[in-house]
Design brief:
- The protein has 149 residues and is an alpha+beta fold.
- The protein has one domain: Nucleic acid-binding proteins (OB fold (Dihydrolipoamide Acetyltransferase, E2P)), CATH 2.40.50.140.
- The protein is 15% helix and 28% strand.
- The chain contains 3 helices and 8 strands.
- Strands 1, 2, 3, 4, 5, 6, 7 and 8 form an 8-stranded mixed beta sheet that branches.
- β3 and β4 form a beta hairpin.
- It is globular and about 40 Å long.
- The N and C termini lie far apart (59 Å).
């Protein structure tokens, strides 16, 4: 927690946020990057959620990632699509794309500063598809199936 506070303090002292196009020039730095979130997308494995700042995220100069385990500390990031946000943190490269890992809601500023918490029925362990206490099976038994047996 202290490290996050130091990151945020250092970022605030640096001044204005940079546009996403400047991200590749600041790798290894603690920065603030600003841009409009085009889409919020969950990874195929469900382990992470990505804030995409370009229509084609594979050609974008910057991405922000929230790991599923951190969603409760960040909030409902699905609400960020279409909003301009400021992302504060350490800028690193992952698979050729500069990114900031968001672990806490305090790393988001601008329109994203007041994200709502995750809905109670959102289960981060089940990738957001299930409600607590309810299960779905591939083949459900209907009342007509029971009568036929």
């Amino acid at each position: 927690m202290r490290a996050l506070a130091l990151v945020l303090l250092a970022t605030n002292c640096l001044g204005a946020c940079l546009p996403i196009s400047e991200a590749p020039n600041k790798l290894g730095s603690t920065v603030c990057i600003t841009g409009k979130v085009v889409t919020v997308q969950r990874s195929p494995s469900g382990a992470a959620w990505f804030l995409n700042f370009c229509e084609d995220h594979t050609r974008c100069a910057f991405s922000a990632v929230v790991f599923t385990r951190d969603l409760r500390d960040v909030g409902d990031i699905r609400m960020l699509a279409g909003r301009t946000v400021e992302v504060h943190g350490a800028l690193r490269q992952y698979k050729g794309v500069p990114e900031i890992v968001i672990r806490d809601a305090r790393q988001l500023k601008g329109e994203a500063a007041k994200l709502p918490p995750l809905p109670k029925e959102f289960d981060v362990e089940k990738k957001g598809r299930y409600r607590a206490g309810q299960t779905k099976t591939k083949h459900s038994t209907s009342s007509t199936d029971v009568e036929k047996r």
